[in-house]
Predict the structure of Anaerobic sulfite reductase subunit A.
Amino acid sequence: MDYNLSKEKFNQLLSELKQEYQIYAPVRKENKGTYSANDLITYDLIDNLDDIELNKKSKYSAKEIVFPIRETLFHFMDGEQKMASEDEEKYIIFLRPCDRNAFKRLDKIFLENGPEEDIYYKRLREKVKFFVIECTEGFDSCFCVSMDSNEVERDDYSAFLRFREDGISFKLNDQELKNNYFTDVNDFEKINFEAQFIQENKIKVNLPDKDKITNEVFENELWTEYSERCIACGRCNTSCPTCSCFTVKDVLYDENKKSGERFRRWAGCHIDGFTEMAGGHSFREEHGDRMRYKTMHKIYDFAERFDFDMCVGCGRCDDVCPEYISFSKCINKLSQIVEEGA
Ligand code: SF4
Ligand code: SF4
């Protein structure tokens, strides 16, 4: 059963949910964009439906809620360690299907990529509920349909929302929320609606035939183009909802040099120092090599290990690149090269 609610009633529910959950959604921050006169669309806490920016794509995704930019792992003192304490927060995240599918990629990376689960990711991830926003039109740079990430399954969300002029139509798929918050659902207007998903983006990407990718493809001159254009700023990494690399550092506290903490923070494969090893050797000095590494990871290696590609086609990397490097165009060029036999 699905329901219709007025905006006022839904906002009332949100304010009740706020007692237990931190509610995140894409919002507009005026004059906080790249230039002072530009607005920044990003994830932040909301109070009500009017806070949600539905008409523009967010520059950043919601990944930092479960994978913080900087996260303390443990504290140490005099040879003893103590795992960083866990906060009590629970989260509701409003997001589009591609971004929900990006969390599936993060789950694979942090929870199913070897014998051990990432306990830090897991303890945050377990406290997240997803409210999926119906998305039927997308944005100019999206290519989610090509990446097969334009749709979600019923099990992927706690609620699925269609925004109407005068209210919300929603599917509720979460017993905990039903029991604790949506207790008067029987008084809501009952409807049946079929979730709609975008079926065609303006941008289409042809994925390369993985069986035809040879070593020659890795050495193709395609990648040298990016050595000339990419400035290794790493914006594409930070805005990507599936980039999940991090580096680990120790800091010692001033008062007692035997005490300190170990933390991790985001790292990006495009940024200088990402592959630096003891002795100063670096594997991918050329920026084009970094582009090749990222591309192959997003649309080749990851799928060799798991069942789907890592890239969800959100197009954020295209939106943020100061050098107008287009990842979707790169994939299409790569596919052509692969088809032509490198
Ligand atoms: S690689 Fe680009 S298009 Fe793909 S998920 Fe990351 S930001 Fe989105
Ligand atoms: S955003 Fe563009 S210039 Fe910056 S690292 Fe990525 S591809 Fe290179």
Remarks:
- The first helix runs from residue 7 to 17.
- The mean pLDDT is 95.
- The two ends are 53 Å apart (CA to CA).
